[in-house]
Amino acid sequence: MVYDTRQRGTLACAYPTPEVAFAQGTGLGKLLLDFAETEARKAGFDSIYLYTHEKMTENRALYSRRGYVEFEPHLDSPPFLVYMRKPLAEAA
To answer: With contact defined as beta carbons under 8 Å apart, do 46 and 58 qualify?
Structure first.
């Protein structure tokens, strides 16, 4: 779920498949974020990064509540993606 990209933790694609869609609203997404952030800290990363679609407003709100902030994308990124970063120096 976490991998090294230019010395930073990047959350790999994590999305519900039909087999786990039943878990929506159960807190599974929060648990996955907790796991990814913990593993990134263990690996020594000072930040974790993710991206989502601009229309995924509920996800964006969740990430913001958890301390993620938007940042400017790479020049070749699709315009509909929103990139977010969370510093990991503070406690989970």
So the answer is: no
- The stretch 44-54 carries a mean pLDDT of 87
Q: What is the mean pLDDT of residues 54-71?
A: 91
> For the chain, which domains are there?
2-87 (3.40.630.30)
* Burial tier of 25 (Cβ tally within 10 Å: 0-12, 13-18, 19+): exposed
* Mean predicted confidence (pLDDT) in 78-87: 88
- Among residues 80, 85, 26, the alpha carbon closest in space to that of 50 is found at 85
Question: Which residues are CB-neighbours of 83 under 8 A, at least 6 positions away?
Answer: 49, 50, 51, 70, 71, 72, 73, 77
Q: Are 50 and 11 in contact (CB under 8 A)?
A: yes
Find out whether 50 and 10 touch, Cβ atoms under 8 Å. Answer: yes
Phi-psi map region of 68: left, alpha, beta (phi>0 left; psi -120 to 50 alpha): beta
